[in-house]
Amino acid sequence: MDCLFCSIAAGEIPSAIVYEDAEIIAFRDIQPAAPTHILVIPKAHIPSVDGVCAENSRLVAHIFEVIPQIAAAEGLSNGYRVVSNCGPDAGQTVPHLHFHILGGRPLRSEMC
Ligand code: AMP
Ligand code: ZN
Fold first, then answer.
1. What is the mean pLDDT of residues 71-84?
2. Who's near 46: CB < 8 A, 6+ residues apart?
3. Which ligand lies nearest to the CA atom of residue 28 in the structure?
4. Which of 37, 96, 98, 100 is labelled catalytic?
5. How far is CA 80 from CA 57, 86, 99, in A?
6. Residue to mutate (ligand 1; options 36, 39, 49, 111; most atoms within 8 A of CB)
């Protein structure tokens, strides 16, 4: 399957990795919308939040266990935002489940 984030997870496309384990990987967004902008993805291909189900939801739980560790490592002690765009109306551009971590400045009421 031709998927950008599957290729990043496989190490075929370089990225600025900030966290990796057997199941998930986190890397810096190539077009940061905030001083800290990190994407956290499962290595397994899940197209979007719509693809989360009983068989794979533990990966999402694992991502949310790791997000606070990443935020702490990035020094986001004043807060941060976690966003997942699902589908065209949300502006999802990469069809592989990902969670944006945004922080490092006060964020407006929209995504960033
Ligand atoms: P979304 O619009 O929610 O699907 O988010 C996709 C994100 O992926 C955008 O913020 C892009 O800037 C980011 N992105 C696209 N290509 C890359 C890449 N090669 N490395 C890191 N981030 C990327
Ligand atoms: Zn993928």
1. 98
2. 52, 56, 59, 96, 97
3. 1
4. 98
5. 23, 20, 12
6. 39
User: Cβ contacts of residue 49 below 8 Å, gap of 6+?
Assistant: 84, 86, 97
Q: How far is CA 41 from CA 65, 94, 101, 105, 106, in A?
A: 13, 11, 11, 23, 24
Structure tokens at 106: 């006060």
Mean pLDDT of 58-70: 98
Using a 6 Å cutoff on CB, does residue 84 contact ligand 1?
A: no
Q: Is 62 a catalytic residue?
A: no
Share of the chain above pLDDT 70, in %: 97
